[in-house]
Amino acid sequence: MPQRRAITGRSQEPRQRFAEELRLLRTQRGDSLRQLGERLGWDWSLFGKMEKGETLGGPEVVQALDTYYGTPGLLLALWELAAGDHTQFRERYRRYMALEAEAVSLWHFAVSVLPGLLQTPGYAREVLAAGGTKGPELEQQVEARMGRRELLEGEDAPPFRTILSEAVLRTPLRDVREWRGQLEHVAEMAERPNVTLHVLPQRAGMHGLDSTALMFLRMSDGRTVAYTENAHRGELIEEYAAIERLQRAYDAMRDLALSPAESRKFVLAMLEEVPCDPST
Asked: In what order do the strands lie in the sheet with 195-200?
């Protein structure tokens, strides 16, 4: 799809517009990327990636840019629009992303891969690359996935329950440091008051969702929608009868899973098996 352009000639796509404004303000100021990095105390390569649209950066660096350029609130507002732009996700996920952002509670089951809400950048990058995503699109999708994690942060974060198949925790990344960091992140998330984590051990045997990753979203109007996914496609389900069948299968599986306390011990035990220093 061609990028929309206003009469100014600038993009109306939130992420691209943010990148264009950053580049315009810097060139008008007469700074090189290296000079900008030296003056603000950030690695200059970060600003280069932001101007190319490869990353949005964090709110702290954007606020610093607003102050430096004398544009109080402008860049931060553009950043918020870009971060909330669901068109950064592939088409099949867009409606689901919009619903996820509005959900008042979430229930999840991971059959083979950690949920995006719990992934670290290194994990997300390897999973997406294994699926064939590469180049600038890979970095964009990693950035978009990391933006989703904000859903579980803050005092008003919705309750999130996830059941992880044991296979998820026994499928490491190629990079040992990245894998250790991912397991540490899972253990830390399991301590949050709004996050409930279960591990479904292999000894539990067969169950009704043994080949399906699943997310339930409970909306503010009381209805529940479900999203199922495999390696090739995802499906948003809103029909009551289908959701009820999935809910029964989920509840039966949860009865087979370890308790939250036992599950966290399981994650920590897996972490102990990962070498602290891959070189040794």
From this structure: 195-200, 160-165, 105-110, 213-218, 224-229, 234-237
* Residues in Cβ contact with 221 at an 8 Å cutoff, skipping those fewer than 6 apart: none
> Residue 14, CB half-sphere, CA atoms under 13 Å: how many?
17
Average pLDDT, integer, range 164-182: 95
Share of the chain above pLDDT 70, in %: 89
Q: What is the DSSP letter of 11?
A: B
Q: Could you tell me if 209 and 91 are in contact, meaning their C-beta atoms sit under 8 angstroms apart?
A: no
Give the up-direction half-sphere exposure of residue 20: CA atoms within 13 A in the CB hemisphere.
Answer: 13
Tokens, residue 31:
């700074």
CA distance 31 to 248: 60
Helices (H), 30-73: 33-40, 44-52, 59-69
Amino acid at 117: L
Tokens 């796509």 belong to which residue?
A: 13
Distance CA 259, CA 138 (A): 36
- Under 8 Å CB-to-CB from 52, ≥6 apart: which residues? 19, 136
What distances in angstroms separate CA 149 from CA 120, 190, 245, one per listed residue?
9, 14, 28
DSSP 6: -
Adjacent-strand bridge partners of 11: 5
The whole-angstrom separation of Cα 183 and Cα 176 is 11
Instruction: Tell me the average pLDDT of the chain.
Output: 87
CA gap 264, 266 in Å, rounded: 5
pTM: 0.68
- AA identity, residue 152: L
Query: 3-state DSSP call for residue 275?
Result: coil
